[in-house]
Amino acid sequence: MKIGFIGLGNMGGPMAANLVKAGHDVTGFDVAGVTVEGARAAGTAAEAAAGADVVITMLPNGAILRAVATEVIPAMKKGAVFCDCSTVDVASARAVAADAEKAGLLAVDAPVSGGVTGAAAGTLTFMAGGSEAAFAVVQPLFDIMGQKAVHCGASGAGQAAKICNNMILGVTMIATCEAFALADKLGLDRQKMFDVVSTSSGYSWTMNAYCPAPGVGPKSPADNAYKPGFAAELMLKDLRLSQQAAEAADADTPMGELAARLYETFVESEDGKGMDFSAMLPRFEKRHRG
Ligand code: NAD
Q1: Whole-structure pTM value
Q2: Could you tell me the distance, in angstroms and rounded to a whole number, from the CA of residue 57 to the centre of ligand 1?
Q3: Ligand 1 centroid to 183 CA: how many Å?
Q4: Fewest Cβ atoms closer than 10 Å to its Cβ: which of 52, 95, 220, 289?
Q5: Residue 95 CB neighbours (<10 A)
Q6: ipTM exceeding 0.95?
């Protein structure tokens, strides 16, 4: 397949490299001038998109996606698929898909889970929104870049699934960290706490697979001085997206709202910037009630 890939950062770079390795004809563009071995380098986003069967975008946010889509959609050939894999707000995902469809293209929003290691290993999970016809075209590409792709529904459904998942993740990480900090103050050994909770009803991905306590559970960013991993800033971005969506949809999400506020304080007023999102544990360790 002829693929245009726009946004070759931490995620997009290795995703594009996996498509090249699988034998696809990839033309890449990144505003920062980054290139991917084996892919042709385009001078503009429109040039990367021209003649492509599928254009994939992996960009920082919805505003940049909208700007890139405005440039790219008119350059694409009729019937081609515009597939955005960035994490953006549901409204931007739907607006870009509507513009693409108006221009005679197919559109898919397909944010991913699995982080930079999943991008490099080709083990991402894709959650997709769009028509059956559009999903059918990009599914073989998801199979190369990932291990699972779920077609969640119409345009925007992929982004909806992603921000709901990450709202659970943010809330659960905070709960796991505050429970460890409480256990410390109650004199409970962290390893014993892990042994109990990881096999009891408090178990979760944050406890069992990404334990925020150093030296406990499987290796995680906590064992590497809380270097990301999944940065606290990115968690804040996703929690803000979930709260923006909740407001637009009139949904009551008090735990998500509190998690967004805590990560905002952590990143903007405390020492969370540049740290993994599990560094909430040392934050709670240092704090006292009241
Ligand atoms: P990144 O900042 O490393 O990459 C984004 C790239 O987009 C950069 O290389 C940047 O130069 C490029 N870019 C910006 N504006 C552009 C433009 N106008 N035209 C072309 N290129 C442009 O970010 P990332 O970690 O690769 O994340 C990309 C997306 O994936 C984000 O939406 C993020 O939320 C999502 N995501 C990231 C992770 C993760 O663990 N890093 C996990 C899941 C999802």
Answers
A1: 0.93
A2: 9
A3: 37
A4: 289
A5: 17
A6: yes
Task: Decide if pLDDT at 3 tops 80.
Answer: yes
pLDDT category of residue 161 using cuts at 50, 70 and 90: very high
Q: Beta-strand (E) ranges in 119-271?
A: 124-130, 146-153
In contact, 110 and 128? CB cutoff 8 Å: yes
Catalytic annotation, residues: 162
pLDDT tens by residue, 49-58: 999 999 999 9
- 15, 27, 59, 116, best to mutate for ligand 1 pocket (most atoms within 8 Å of CB): 59
pLDDT (tens digit per residue) in 10-19:
899 999 999 9
Structural tokens at position 202? 């408090």
Q: Which residues contact 75 (CB under 8 A, 6 or more apart)?
A: 46, 47, 49, 50
Q: Which two tokens stand for residue 79?
A: 């019937």
Q: Which two tokens stand for residue 103?
A: 């221009």
Q: Is the CB of 221 under 6 A from ligand 1?
A: no
Q: Is the CB of 8 under 6 A from ligand 1?
A: yes
Tell me which of 8, 30, 275 to substitute to probe ligand 1's pocket, judged by most ligand atoms within 8 Å of the beta carbon.
Answer: 30
